[in-house]
From TrEMBL, chains A, B:
Family matches, as PROSITE patterns: HTH_HXLR
A Pfam family annotated for this UniProt entry: HxlR
GO molecular function, one term: DNA binding
Residue stretches in coiled coil: none
Keywords, ordered alphabetically: DNA-binding, Transcription, Transcription regulation
Keyword Transcription regulation part of the UniProt annotation: yes
Residues annotated as domain HTH hxlR-type: 14-123
Domain of life: Bacteria
Protein name as annotated: Transcriptional regulator, HxlR family
Cited InterPro entries: HTH_HxlR, WH-like_DNA-bd_sf, WH_DNA-bd_sf
Keyword match Transcription regulation: yes
Stored PANTHER family: TRANSCRIPTIONAL REGULATOR, MARR FAMILY, TRANSCRIPTIONAL REGULATORY PROTEIN
Length: 134, 134
DNA sequence: TGCCGTACCCACCTTGAGGTAACCATGAAA
DNA sequence: TTTCATGGTTACCTCAAGGTGGGTACGGCA
């Protein structure tokens, strides 16, 4: 069974990009793996409806207000969530995932599922390594 | 077109894991997005042959010796690369990707390709956001 | 004797992520 | 008039990633 990733194809996609665009790609992917990004996005997507800031704070357990604000601003800037402010008192702000975010989550999903279904292999590999080095 | 991620399925996979296993999954995915990990793995996979440390340093442009060593140790510990030391002078060490690493790269590939083919959308979203906030 | 090349390790420093806690603006309710 | 709720901002702290520049081990070679 020959196993060969088509990195040529990836390169083809990347070579069309200038240096800025290439680092943007890297940045997007990297941000996805930052501490709260994926979790926040997943909660918003799961709700399938606009969600207020404070509700999101409850759902994304352990996130600080500062971090959540920052993550949401970044996601908004990248067009992955929409932010709607209602001119009320007390203020009301609603967040929601965009189509493009859902597209992305669909690609992240299999990777995540694969990782969690292979946890055993990783534990075994680590145990073996640690024993060798003991 | 109803777009709905099956987070229930993800949860099902995750709920079977205890807390340690869950955080391991998170750790694996997070490490993938660290600065040099994916690039290193991709170079090794692309070579499709054992590669020496110094050759890898050349290919992964800009990585420091310290960082490359660390990344390789972690990948080795997780069973994603093999490390073979030849008892020679000067020393010779060969690295190579494992089957499981290739499996993983196949899942990362579509995500990466999608991100790079949507760079334009992200740039546009950012430009629009920055203009609004100007 | 002393330097070379490989693949490291270690000490030190800068940078940025992310936490805590305090403060702010607003108008309705008490 | 004071209080409250919401969605922030800001100052300050800690911790860890990651870079730089040095040292190390080894035998071969001049």
């Amino acid at each position: 069974m020959k196993r060969h990733i088509d990195w040529v194809e990836v390169n083809a996609a990347c070579e069309a990009l200038d240096e800025n665009e290439d680092s943007l790609t890297r940045e997007i992917v990297t941000r996805l793996a930052e501490k709260w990004t994926l979790w926040t996005l997943a909660e918003l997507a799961a709700a399938d409806a606009p969600m207020r800031f404070s509700r999101l704070m409850e759902r994304v357990e352990g996130v600080s207000q500062k971090s959540l604000t920052k993550v949401l601003r970044q996601l908004e800037r990248d067009g992955l969530v929409t932010r709607v402010v209602f001119a009320q008192v007390p203020p009301r702000v609603e967040y929601q995932t965009t189509e493009i975010a859902l597209e992305m989550l669909e690609l992240v999903h299999p990777l995540w599922a694969w990782a969690s279904s292979n946890v055993g292999k990783f534990q075994a590999a680590r145990a073996a390594y640690d024993k060798r080095r003991k």
